[in-house]
Amino acid sequence: MKTTLDIKGMHCASCAMTIERHLKKTVGVQGAVVNIATEKASVEYEPDKINEDGLITAVRGVGYDAFTETPSATVKHNEHNDHNEHNLNEKPAPALMSAAMPGMTAEEHAEHLKQMKAEEYTALKRKVTVAAILSVVILVLTFWKELRLPELITETNRNLLNLALTTIVLFWGGAEFFGNFWRALKHFTANMDSLIAIGTFAAYIYSVGAQFFPKFFSTGGLAPGLFYDTAAVIITLILLGRLLEARAKGQTNEALKKLAGLQAKSARVIRDGKETEVPLAELQIGDVMLVKPGDKIPTDGEVIDGLSSVDESMITGEPIPVERKPGDMVIGATINQHGVLKIRANKVGAETLLAQIIKMVAEAQGSKAPIQRLADLISSYFVPVVLVIAIITAVIWVIFGPAPSLNFALVNFVAVLIIACPCALGLATPTAIMVGTGRAAQNGILIRDATSLETAGRMNIIAFDKTGTLTLGKPKVVEVLGTGTKGTGSAATVSENTASILEIVFGLEKNSEHPLAGAIVSYAEEQKTKLPEVKEFRAVPGMGVSGRINQTSYIFGNVKLMEQHDISWQKDAAELKVEEFESRGQTVMFIGDATGRKMLGIVVVADVVKESSKEAVATLKKMGIVPVMITGDNERTADAIAKEVGIEEVHAKILPHEKLELIKRWQTAGKKVAMVGDGINDAPALTQADVGIAMGTGTDIAMEAANITVIKGDLSKVVSAIMISRKTLTNIKQNLFWAFIYNALGIPVAAGALYPFFGILLSPILASAAMAFSSISVLLNSLRLKSAKL
Q1: Which of 90, 186, 226, 278 gives the lowest tally of CB atoms within 10 Å of its CB?
Q2: Would the CA dihedral through 702, 703, 704, 706 be positive or negative?
């Protein structure tokens, strides 16, 4: 059996590792994956050996809290069907169950969780604000003389005030760090909170000792310094990082909520010959639904009566509505544009395509393994080692040190702890991340979290959706050609012949409800085309439109309409190179004189390639990344667009779940995959990919499901995002290396290794200076990203 637990109290990868290791060792657990990003644990267990309460107890046994996740739904199976065990079509923000909330519905649980998260965020924001204000005051008091402020308060009183303010910041603002450190210590583990707690407390306790017993801490005639500002500012900066992280995590389930929101709330059904509106939960397989123009189709089914065009872009990603007639299948949550349809429901609840997309998004989000951050990995060994070294140092100095040996022992013990302070180690990643994401934002790239920024630079394959990603995503007129002419309607000037054709087409399409009519009308209006009066207008389903202008009847549509009016079109089509347009995946429509039975010309409509696409694909190739196209469109159109932008590998007629499976296949082969898309149909692939990149010009759901959003849909920004990621990751590694080296070289000196040879001891003052220098070097190195060439 499989279950999902919500975990509370995790702050780093080592937290997740600790819980995961403990769960895997628990009797009855077959497998466990803990995701730090989603704060969930996915656990497979044997119900005859352990239940969910036992799993929760196991998690709480290592110092964290856990709750069972409550499934929720908006699309339910009717009670008369055989599929109502669990509703998998929606998986919104999980609800936390507790004994204090018996009988709470799934929706109430979700709302309760939302409220809890909001309260936690508000409390954290309050802590950041107070800690920041107090830290500024502490800094002013610390550098009072350097700022040349008047002696309104004595140095002794300034130090006492700093002690009071730092105590508040440390033990109120940083209470969670010390609590987590204590819990980790009880279970013989260490994490980033351990480093924060030890480092800040060492600075604090040394400062207290130096303030009240300065002679005791003096070494080599140097007066001890106070480091209240160090402890306070570290706590404040780390709290700020936690606040930004909490804000990002609060948006992780928005994609699922919006996907669920696409579903219709009710359905008009015909039962016993009467039209009745019923809630979606009561819809049954076999019900006949009546769907009027502008309505959402309630569920997947088959058209049994009526003719209309349906906007399926939220599922297929293709911008052009498709015609639907009796016998055709339709998808729930798509929009009926024109005409009344009668549809027989053949899938409801968790079986619908939308429900399956929601399920896949949820699973992809939960299955992502957290990146093991290097700082956490180092800290799991570094902290215990430093503590052991500090203790050994004290013992050696007590036994073998000169008199007063206890003084020497304590000074060197503190020096080791101070120089091993995790300031630089803790700042190494977040400072680079902050500068990197800021640089990205300046370039119109929004990066959801640090994990996404770290991962983007490691991609081997980038899969592009076609419509709205490589192309503009909306049809445009690219050619208007008259028979006997070679000009193009898309040129800056329109010939007299094509202008008259455009005028006729404008008149006919102005009244049309054809999916491409809008593109033609918009183009005609841009060309300031005169709108003629059209009489006897008629739409011919599946073929086109006809109408009379003055004394001449005209037709506009496909070749079937031309043949219906006995108009010979083949010769003119050959001269106008119609096949060449169609081979590029463009739609060609014919204009004919029905009175004189002759073809007048063609109008070519296509979804054109973005200006940035070709250059972006070429740059990615130079970077060693393989670009691939995966699209729901037909092979001919897909191949034409791919050839134009320079993509060799194309996968056409791919449905949403097939996109996801394709990405899984690449990942299984050891590849790091990025997915670039803009539609709802791309959401499963965006979440399954190692990095999902959404076009800001696309749907909100795609952007919520993605890790990175390119605001203006410019593909050159995808290249920029990868370059920023690579430079940031390099910067992080440099920061961690230098932070570690400073500590590794400083600790032996702080322990007194040079004393037997040169009589040199490292004062805690100098130790803290080395610590500060390591932090400053990390900050300065991170700031280099601001001017890094992209």
Answers
A1: 186
A2: positive
